[in-house]
Amino acid sequence: MSPTSQTETETLRQPAEVTDAQVLEQLAALEGARPPGWRLTPRAVVAYLMGDPLEGIALAPKYVGNRRLIETAVATLATDRALLLLGVPGTAKSWVSEHLAAAICGDSQLLIQGTAGTDESQIRYSWNYARLLAEGPSRAALVPTPLMRGMERGQIVRLEELTRIGADVQDTLITILSEKVLPVPELDLSIPARRGFNIIATANNRDRGVNELSSALKRRFNVVTLPLPTSLAEEVGIVASRAASLGAGLALPQAVPPEAEIARIVTLFRELRSGQTLDGKAALKVPSGTLSTAEAISVVVSAWSEAAYFGSGALEARHLAANVIGAVVKDPVQDRIAMQEYLENVMRERDGWEDLYRACRQVL
């Protein structure tokens, strides 16, 4: 079967504007002032992200956290300032970015994934070299990037992992963000941005190989820092909700993992990344990884898959153990020591954790 003949049900992952199309259409029908090029009002965008009921429309929360942060992000995008979502890995930066773009312009797929190998042509434009050689420089020989398309259409462009891009390539954005035009010197023209165009960039401050933003580029972004969940209950709720959603999308059989098991994983992650037990009575070695909420979600979904396909369907400690060890032990020496100490000093002594202790000991 060719890719173009696939139905939506056969697609592994649908973008937010597809999965939430009905709700977004209802919100778009509401009256209210909109910035130029926006499908929804700013208030409706915030309600969509936070799950606030709005004029009888039931909305599921896309982001669980400080409402003020989302309001600031939405207000920023209504101006000519670009938005930078900053935080440690796993704080839902990409998730928030996608849903903001889907709500504001109905298209979250104008995406540039930043890597160490990203060059200027992937941000600004490139050329169809066969046509360039045959006809010379022309508008028809120009190959637009998502950024160029976003400027021409007046839409939101997402730029993931900005700080993984080299500093000299990052600064390509300065003229675009300042003048709202994309110069094409080969054709002696500039492509202006239509109203509605803006950039949502994401970056984390815990990544190895981070390239700091120049002060000139920083000034052109409004920075919103997304924190890790503040409480155990909040993080458990996020993991349970996202795991259930991912499991449904992957068509995993059997029951959703019980919240009690999710709470154990989240507790373990929170204690190891903070370097102390939740009651503050014991200090712990901190592993090299971030042990973020996103990693906790991954552990739960992987354990659920293992229980469904290789067990009775009920999530047990033995299904969690290998996935927990795989998430924690990134460095075979440092992280193994940290995990061993946690097993013997915390998990072994904790009521109701005996099964998880034994299962992790067998894997470690």
Describe this structure in words.
This protein has helices spanning 16-19, 21-28, 42-50, 67-77, 93-105, 120-123, 129-135, 146-153, 167-170, 173-179, 215-218, 232-249, 259-274, 293-310, 317-328, 334-345, 354-363, and strands spanning 82-86, 111-113, 125-127, 142-144, 156-160, 181-184, 189-192, 198-203, 221-225. The radius of gyration is 23 Å and the shape is globular. It starts with 15 loop residues before the first helix and ends with a helix. It folds into two domains: 3-225, P-loop containing nucleotide triphosphate hydrolases (Rossmann fold, 3-Layer(aba) Sandwich); 232-363. The strands form three sheets. The chain has a five-stranded parallel beta sheet. Strands 3-4 form a two-stranded antiparallel sheet. The longest helix has 18 residues, at 232-249. With 364 residues, it is of the alpha/beta class. It is built from 17 helices and nine strands.
Topology:
Layout: H1 16-19, H2 21-28, H3 42-50, H4 67-77, E1 82-86, H5 93-105, E2 111-113, H6 120-123, E3 125-127, H7 129-135, E4 142-144, H8 146-153, E5 156-160, H9 167-170, H10 173-179, E6 181-184, E7 189-192, E8 198-203, H11 215-218, E9 221-225, H12 232-249, H13 259-274, H14 293-310, H15 317-328, H16 334-345, H17 354-363
Parallel strand pairs: 1-8, 1-9, 2-5, 5-8
Antiparallel strand pairs: 3-4, 6-7
Helix pairs in contact: 3-4, 3-5, 12-13, 12-14, 13-14, 14-15, 15-17
